[in-house]
Design brief:
- By secondary structure, the protein is mainly alpha-helical.
- It is 82% helix and 0% strand.
- It has eleven helices and no strands.
- It is elongated and about 55 Å long.
Length: 222
């Protein structure tokens, strides 16, 4: 099973990197969304520094939504999803592989470029490691929750809109805990509790989200 899991993961990574457009779109949207905030709220460093964590987290979760509707759509269109469902590998494991590939091409790049954007929106340098750690812990949950929404809207006429409506409420806990960790760090309370909650959320999503996604996919394939 490990070989099949890694093979599907490598396949999805190769397809994402070969096309390149989805990855570039996600990163470009993330950067532009963060850079537009100073024009809307004003360039005052004190104000920007106070809301910087929320800006970056909101931009990250919106960027993650962009590619969710295509998480299973290509495989569904060419029949590959039927082959995956009929293979010896459990469908839940295949979902986990595809969610991991989505995170590696969206969540991880967003986490890596977040320090640069944090500087641009005047986030305190002491809070940047907490911001990165929060994104590292929380963005896998975004991919896992997003897989559920993508499976539920598979075959819909306008999947992008439906995915957004379904997944944004699920993204509220990572947003609250991630931004809260930075805020607690800046107020000297410490962001450890928020980071632990983020980690617990991702750990809970690891077994539960593939089960829910696989059930939705079986329903879509029937």
């Amino acid at each position: 099973m490990t070989g099949a899991f890694l093979g599907l993961l490598r396949r999805d990574l190769r397809l994402s990197l070969r096309q390149g457009g989805d990855v570039g779109l996600v990163i470009g949207f993330f950067v532009l969304a963060v850079l537009l905030f100073p024009f809307g709220v004003g360039p005052e460093p004190e104000l920007l520094g106070r809301i910087a964590a929320g800006i970056i987290w909101v931009a990250a979760l919106l960027a993650a939504v962009l590619s969710l509707d295509r998480l299973f759509a290509a495989d569904h269109a060419d029949g590959g999803l039927d082959l995956i469902a009929l293979s010896a590998m459990p469908l839940e494991l295949a979902v986990l592989a595809k969610a991991a590939a989505h995170w590696l091409t969206t969540g991880l790049p967003l986490t890596l470029i977040s320090p640069l954007l944090a500087v641009l929106v005047d986030l305190d340098a002491a809070a940047i490691p907490v911001l990165m750690l929060g994104l590292l812990l929380g963005t896998p949950a975004l991919s896992l929750f997003g897989a559920i929404a993508a499976a539920l809207t598979l075959g819909a006429r306008r999947p992008g809109v439906l995915v957004s409506l379904l997944v944004l409420p699920l993204y509220l806990p990572p947003l609250i805990f991630g931004a809260g960790a930075v805020e607690a760090t800046l107020t000297a309370d410490g962001g450890r509790a928020h980071l632990l909650l983020l980690g617990a959320l991702t750990l809970a999503a690891l077994p539960l989200a593939p089960l829910a996604t696989a059930a939705a996919l079986r329903q879509a394939l029937d």
